[in-house]
Design goal:
Elements lengths: L4 H7 L15 H7 L4 E2 L2 E2 H11 L9 E6 L5 H9 L5 E7 L2 H10 L6 E5 L2 H7 L4 E7 L2 H12 L1 H19 E12 L4 H10 L14 H15 L3 E9 L3 E3 L2 H12 L10 H13 L8 E3 L2 E9 L1
Parallel strand pairs: 3-4, 3-6, 4-5, 6-7
Antiparallel strand pairs: 1-2, 7-11, 8-11, 9-10
Helix pairs in contact: 3-4, 6-8, 7-8, 8-10, 11-12
Bound molecules: S-adenosylmethionine.
């Protein structure tokens, strides 16, 4: 039976939520809807915390200069700030969404050494002249990479992104500077179905048998820089603990409003998207009616030589 958007909104009231690409998900809703991501017994945030513990952040009397790309509501920012309590530091926070930045401005209002930049990450990196001791980005870098590929086309976009990453490492990091990245795994149980939906509108997601274009492009440029001795690269793949959704309704809300940023909520494809997701979730539904789906991620630890 064909259902129109109004019928579907009556069934799933949360479909009324809509955002623009620039505004991403509303910050309080983001914090509410975000599930715990656990890899090898540690949350994504703990993994970042462990990385910070492992590297020496103390620069003596010199300020440690840090940059976070796609800070969102400041989950990783908090960990960073707490890890460098005893250290003199500056931190630049970048996000494309003005409401995410407003949220973070309130969170970190007591820090005069934190600055905020409303920008696409690649555009910011392209123009930046600072040198940073640490640059980090959790679950965000790929957004900027994919948006630039969509805007510029696969060929020019790839060239642009790789030049920007190369420039960031060669010109904006000094010897010993670190770059830490958490990147989504598009072939995980969680993301596979999302790439299939993305493909309906963006041709860059055409090949579902390969990792996302963002991951492939980042891998290529970082491996090259590793091979020519510019950086030392350590990459890890994690398959996470299954995330539990108490009902089909909850799983649909998280996938449509969080993962797909409500992109399809007002489009003619909505009913098909809901149907495909519901069919896919059947593979992961237990006898208790709960849906359990495993996420995945890649971590990248880069050290400039
Ligand atoms: C999944 S959230 C991750 C936020 C945060 N790092 C965390 O781990 O909770 C993605 C973030 O990337 C931001 N974003 C989306 N596109 C972006 C772009 N082109 N440049 C910079 N930030 C972007 C969104 O506004 C959002 O805050």
């Amino acid at each position: 039976m064909r259902e129109n958007i109004e019928d579907l909104q009556n069934k799933y009231p949360w479909l009324k939520v809509t955002n623009s690409l620039e505004e991403y998900v509303e910050p309080n809703y983001y914090n509410k809807i975000l599930k715990d991501y656990i890899f090898d017994g540690k949350s994504d945030i703990n993994i970042f915390e462990d990385f910070l513990k492992k590297i020496n952040l103390d620069k003596g009397i010199n300020a440690l200069n840090a940059l976070e790309l796609g800070c969102g509501t400041g989950r990783a920012t908090k960990v960073f700030v707490n890890s460098v309590k005893a250290v003199n530091f500056t931190l630049d926070l970048v996000d494309l969404s003005s409401r995410m930045l407003d949220f973070s401005k309130k969170e970190f209002k007591d820090y005069e050494n934190i600055k905020f930049f409303e920008s696409d990450s690649m555009n910011f990196l392209e123009k930046m002249i600072e040198t940073y001791d640490i640059i980090f980005s959790l679950w965000s870098f790929s957004h900027s990479v994919h948006q630039n590929l969509i805007k510029k086309g696969l060929y020019d976009g790839k060239k642009y992104v790789q030049e920007v990453i190369s420039k960031m490492i060669k010109e904006n990091m000094r010897a010993n500077s670190k770059f830490f990245l958490i990147h989504f795994d598009s072939m995980s149980d969680e993301q596979r179905i999302l790439m299939k939906q993305g493909r309906k509108v963006f041709s860059i997601y055409n090949d579902l048998d390969k990792q996302s274009p963002s991951k492939l492009i980042i891998d290529e440029v970082l491996n090259k820089l590793n091979d020519d001795g510019t950086i030392k690269l350590k990459a890890n793949h994690f398959v996470g603990e299954a995330i539990t959704y108490s009902s089909l309704n909850e799983a649909l809300e998280v996938f449509l409003n969080f993962h797909m940023e409500s992109y399809f909520n007002k489009t003619p494809e909505l009913q098909t998207v809901i149907q495909e997701l519901s069919d896919y979730f059947k593979n992961f539904t237990g006898e208790d009616g709960k849906i359990r789906i495993k996420p995945g991620c890649f971590t990248y630890e880069v050290e400039k030589i």
